[in-house]
Amino acid sequence: MHLRPIHFADAPFAYPDGHVARLAGGMQWFAAYEVSEGDARRIVPVADIAALGERAATLHARITSPRPAWVLGERTLRFDQPAVAGILNVTPDSFSDGGAHVDDPAGAAAAGMAMAAAGAAVIDVGAESTRPGATLVWEEDEARRAAPVVERLARAGALVSIDTRKAPVMEAALAAGAGIVNDVSALLWDERALDLVARSGAPVVLMHSPDPRAGGHGRPTYRHVATEVFDWLEARIAAVVAAGFDRARIMVDPGIGFGKSLADNLALIQALPLFHGLGCPIMLGTSRKRMIGALDNEAPVGERLGGSVALAVAGAQAGVQLLRVHDVAATVQALRVWRGLRDRALAP
Length: 348
Known about the structure:
35% of the residues lie in helices and 19% in strands. By secondary structure, it is of the alpha/beta class.
């Protein structure tokens, strides 16, 4: 069984008690679920969900429970409204901005602090491209690229996540001041990573891909992509918790663009509220991705701002807590306007 919150409500006080629920302690309220069991779908009001049994009760509790903030040294990352993670690549070959900051730690850190000044809650530093066909980077080279940038950003007061699959890079970045590990392989690519991050106590982002040990870009055939990705992430969370992680320190990412067709990606965007049933904050990374070009006459990477912002707002509407983006200022502005509209909707 899976539950997807639907029938979102602008004003919860317009409904009788118990007829709407708050989504993950955030700014969204909803009145019903789409209940899926295999190929069967039905709509069930929130008020009637208790009659569906133990699995439904577990999912409902996860969906409606507030997500505890992450306190990371002097910085706190809250999840009661959508926040932005700015993408800072220090690679020569990333699909969007490869080469912009490679071999220039001071310049990269300055760019990261500009993102923070523009409203990014997190700066996500990556030193290896994970685009399809990208060259594998030796772990010592990757650590050498990332750690000096992380150190400068952390010293300047930014909250930094390290985007890597490799345990030595995680270790170097955490030692340099990173607070979060963001792993596109969900701690599966490097067999050393799970134990290392568990011992560090750092929060982790677990992303779905169909073949994490092979790079994440295989193309399986999904029957129901949203529920299959959900089930994979649910199993991965259970394994990571069994290894010593606190579930409250895990974030999930459905992996838009990793081993998924355009139709798969669109289905996942439409099904985003489903993933609150994992009981963890959600990260969404759609910025400048191929799906935008596919929907807009093959627009090149540098001309995908409008689509990126549209997808970020769609994520906010679905209750996503962290939006990973290249264009921080534009996205933050869009979210501030979205927040203003939500505040007005909640006014009697």
